[in-house]
């Protein structure tokens, strides 16, 4: 695995770099050698924050931890990502077993709430991958997000899956007029 370690407001010492490579290097058995791991270290007041993102094929494994001890954060990050990998394997296995079952697509109509002033506080760019609805839901759950944007492999359009309050999932498909 290739590591990209970045420090924001903190200098990344050789000892920290070695600890990250030692701990997250344990995950090498799950990934190909050219898989990239992006680790960002930052400090906010007295808290040390470690963010790790590993992109493997169309799956993103991500963990973030904050603590007073940087080394504790690194240990926890490794455990969190390892649990995500196990969860991904389990969900993938279940999905393959249930492949014969019918697919249900939940359509949702978005409500428009009028606001007089819009305040965009963050803009984020991210790569969108070609995947099935099931893969997108799996990826959304792995990331712990409430929604996930992807390119649907059936219609080659940008779609959004989201988790509904009922626990079911919704699919937003654009309709051009």
Would you kindly provide a written description of the structure presented here, covering whatever features stand out?
This protein is of the alpha/beta class and 177 residues long. It folds into two domains: 2-97, Ribosome hibernation promotion factor-like (Double Stranded RNA Binding Domain); 102-172, SHC Adaptor Protein, CATH 3.30.505.50. The protein is built from three helices and eight strands; from the N terminus they run E-H-E-E-E-H-E-H-E-E-E. A four-stranded mixed beta sheet has the order 1-2-3-4. Strand 3 and strand 4 (59-67) form a beta hairpin. Helix 2 runs antiparallel to helix 3 (133-143). The longest helix is centred in the middle third of the chain and has 28 residues, at 70-97. The protein starts with a strand and ends in a 5-residue tail after the last strand.
Give a short synopsis of this structure.
With about 180 residues, the chain is of the alpha/beta class. The chain has helices at about 15-25, 70-95, 135-145; strands spanning about 1-10, 35-45, 45-55, 60-65, 130, 145-150, 160-165, 170. It has a 4-stranded mixed sheet with strand order 1-2-3-4. A 4-stranded mixed sheet has the order 5-6-7-8, with helices on one face.
Number of structurally distinct domains: 2
What oligomerization state is this entry in?
single chain
* Helix share, percent: 25-40%
Low-confidence stretches: 100-109
CATH C-level label of the largest domain = Alpha Beta
Q: Give the count of helical stretches.
A: 3
The CATH superfamily of the largest domain turns out to be Ribosome hibernation promotion factor-like
- CATH architecture call of the largest domain: 2-Layer Sandwich
Radius of gyration: 19 Å
Q: Can you give the mean pLDDT? A: 82
Tell me the overall shape: globular
The total of beta strands comes to 8
Strand order of the largest sheet: 1-2-3-4
Could you say which structural class the secondary elements and strand pairing correspond to? alpha/beta
Helix and strand sequence: EHEEEHEHEEE
How far apart the termini lie comes to 46 Å
The profile of the biggest β sheet is: 4 strands, mixed
What percentage of the residues does DSSP assign to strands (E)? 25-35%
CATH fold-level label of the largest domain:
Double Stranded RNA Binding Domain
């Amino acid at each position: 695995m290739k590591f990209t370690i970045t420090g924001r407001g903190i200098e990344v010492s050789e000892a920290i770099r070695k600890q990250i490579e030692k701990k997250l290097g344990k995950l090498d058995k799950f990934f190909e050698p050219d898989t990239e791991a992006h680790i960002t270290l930052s400090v906010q007041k007295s808290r040390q924050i470690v963010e790790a993102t590993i992109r493997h094929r169309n799956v993103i494994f991500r963990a973030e931890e904050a603590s007073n001890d940087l080394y504790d954060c690194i240990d926890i990050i490794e455990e969190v990502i390892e649990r995500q990998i196990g969860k991904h394997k389990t969900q993938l296995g279940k999905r393959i077993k249930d492949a014969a079952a019918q697919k249900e697509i939940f359509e949702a109509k978005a409500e428009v709430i009028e606001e007089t002033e819009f305040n965009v506080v963050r803009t984020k760019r991210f790569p969108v991958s070609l995947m099935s609805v099931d893969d997108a839901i799996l990826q959304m759950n792995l990331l712990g997000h409430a929604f996930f944007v992807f390119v649907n492999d059936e219609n080659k359009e940008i779609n959004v899956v989201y988790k509904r309050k009922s626990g079911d999932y919704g699919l937003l498909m654009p309709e051009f007029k």
